[in-house]
Design a protein that fits this description.
Blueprint (H helix, E strand, L loop, with lengths): L1 H12 L11 E5 L2 E4 H11 L10 H20 L6 H15 L6 H15 L1 E11 L6 H19 L4 H8 L5 H4 L2 E5 L6 H9 L9 E3 L2 E12 L3 E9 L4 H17 L4 H8 L3 H4 L8 E2 L5 H7 L12 E3 L2 E11 L4 H14 L3 H15 L2 E3 L1 H5 L15 E5 L2 E4 H9 L6 H24 L1 H28 L2 H10 L1 H4 L9 H23 L2 E3 L1 H14 L1
Antiparallel strand pairs: 1-2, 1-14, 3-4, 3-6, 5-6, 7-8, 7-10, 9-10, 11-12, 12-13
Helix pairs in contact: 1-19, 3-19, 4-19, 5-14, 6-7, 18-19, 19-22
């Protein structure tokens, strides 16, 4: 069966690896040598994955040589030059390389930090003065000075709320005086979260920057995290204040008369049509994920099926029913989820930056300052000769023309700022290009897939497609009917016969490969390995 052959390929291509010791040749195919240490590494790695019939050095060596012969044949047929093969290989390489672009130590540190912060919820207010990421130093200083002015007023006795309404560019500040309610880790952008968790209660932070501009914040309260809740609600929009209040009160009476009808009443009356069809049920949420006015009432409920009195938010009037409470999870329960979130949010920049810094220290990087200075001229786009070497990473030369392309996509950056990013990008590209030659673990896994993919396509042509031919299968069955299939019919034993026929075709193919290529085994080395294996047994 094809499945069995796929399994064999997986086992066989796992045999391939990166040689640790190239001193002793175990066998050769034509002019290519294969070494003892490579074979032993893979034997020790995969011996437990194969059946007892091949679980010996000698039989394993036969499989290994057969495998290398097939790889040789695939390359001779230039299957490794086909666009479909190259594209699939490149896609796999990009997926495989992702874990190597992360710093596990930095990631783990950020995961632990986030977990510790999730144990607390912070109530804080902020003032924002907007500033574009590419703002000039002059504009940046003006914003910073304005925030320092606001901070001085607050620390001198003015209320934060009053100053927020006067200074903040956050539109909601006119209603809430800059108060954000309670929030916890992973609910604000990372620089804001850092400031909140490092500012003592009742104090005002120094100005700090996020992607939105500069902020100052004041922490009002820090409390233990409340976990999460799952609730259902009925909402009536406050289009007509008197009518909305009257309607929510009448629905509340119906709810009190029969709590079990809550979902029916939500479906019938709730103006939140997104949840009404589901009986008013909302997704699980933590305190800071909903409006403060809504969370405050939802988290007051202590017992399952307990129902709140009608209350008002900016969206209208609500009645809430508690469906389930969730305590704050322990570290092991949320470690994987935290890791995924951290690798996706702003913290991932810290992880990537750590990798780039490590790579920049590892490689020899040279910058031609004369070639770089040409870009400081406003007419750099008109460079007549942009082919000078600008950057060298080890032995790889990157020319001015590549930076020119980068600059055209980053016109808002200064030349030096853009070049810093360009250099980091090129260092990362160099790492991706050379990782299979510098990282043994990556190279082994990548090469396994590379050769396994080749063999899959070749087995498809040499074995699986041929075994689908009904006439050829029938001829095979008739030929071996007396010796292997006595008193059996092809149709009732077709699966077994197809499997046997595929094995037969592969055996013939391997025999042909031995005739086509010269295989030479180092007999003394093979004998030594067999003796070593017997002693271990």
């Amino acid at each position: 069966m094809k499945f069995n052959y796929v399994l064999i390929i997986v086992v066989l291509y796992c045999l391939n690896g990166i040689s640790q010791n190239r001193e002793t040749v175990l066998f050769s195919i034509d002019n290519t040598d294969f070494y003892t240490q490579e074979f032993l590494d893979n034997y020790n790695k995969n011996a437990t994955l194969v059946s007892d019939s091949v679980n010996s050095i000698e039989n394993y060596l036969d499989l290994f040589i057969n495998y290398k012969l097939k790889v040789k044949e695939a390359k001779e047929l230039k299957l490794d030059t086909l666009p479909s093969y190259i594209n699939e290989l490149n896609d796999y390489k990009m997926r495989l390389i992702q874990p190597y672009l992360k710093d596990k130590k930095v990631t783990n540190k950020l995961v632990v930090e986030a977990f510790e912060r999730l144990q607390k919820e912070i109530n804080a207010s902020h003032i924002l003065i907007s500033l574009k990421p590419d703002a000039s130093p002059k504009d940046t200083l003006a914003v910073y000075s304005k925030l320092m002015e606001a901070r001085k007023l607050i620390t001198s006795g003015s209320s934060f709320s009053k100053i927020a309404k006067q200074y903040s560019d956050d539109p909601s500040a006119q209603q809430n005086g800059g108060n954000l309610g309670f929030f916890t880790a992973l609910q604000m952008v990372y620089p804001f979260e850092n400031a909140a968790y490092s500012t003592p209660v009742n104090t005002v932070s120094k100005p700090f920057r996020t992607q939105f501009g500069y902020h100052i914040l004041q922490v009002h309260e820090i409390r233990p995290a409340l976990g999460a809740v799952e609730v259902a609600h009925i909402m009536i929009k406050n289009n007509d204040a008197v009518a909305a209040k009257s309607k929510i009160d009448s629905i509340y009476k119906l709810v009190l008369n029969n709590k079990e009808r809550f979902s029916e009443l939500a479906s019938k009356y709730s103006d939140d049509r997104a949840t009404a069809s589901n009986g008013g049920k909302l997704n699980k949420f933590t305190y800071g994920q909903m409006l403060e006015s809504f969370s405050k009432e939802a988290f007051k409920l202590e017992h399952i099926s307990e129902i709140s009195q009608p209350f008002k938010t900016e969206y209208g009037w609500h009645i809430v029913k508690l469906l389930k409470k969730y305590p704050v999870p322990n570290f092991e329960e949320i470690k994987d989820d935290l890791t995924r979130k951290i690798e996706r949010d702003e913290r991932s920049n810290l992880i990537g930056k750590s990798v780039i810094n490590r790579l920049q220290k590892k490689h020899t990087i040279l910058v031609d300052t004369l070639a770089l200075n040409q870009f400081k001229d406003r007419n750099w786009r008109n460079l007549t000769n942009a082919n000078s070497v600008l950057l060298t990473i080890n032995n790889k030369e990157i020319r001015q023309v590549e930076f020119a392309k980068f600059l055209k996509l980053n016109l808002n950056e200064t030349v030096l700022s853009a070049f810093k990013k360009f250099k980091e990008q090129e260092v990362l590209n160099y790492y991706k290009e050379t990782i299979e030659f510098t990282n043994k673990e990556f190279a082994a896994t990548y090469n396994e897939f590379k050769e396994g993919l080749l063999l899959f396509d070749l087995l498809e042509k040499k074995v699986w497609e041929k075994s689908k031919d009904s006439a050829s299968l029938s001829n095979y069955f008739i030929r071996f009917k007396d010796t292997k299939y006595a008193n059996k019919e092809l149709e009732t034993n077709k699966g077994v016969v197809i499997n046997d026929y595929q094995n037969y075709l592969e055996q013939l193919w391997v025999e042909a490969l031995y005739k086509k290529y010269k295989v030479k085994i180092n007999k003394s080395e093979k004998k030594r390995l067999i003796k070593l294996n017997q002693k271990k047994s």
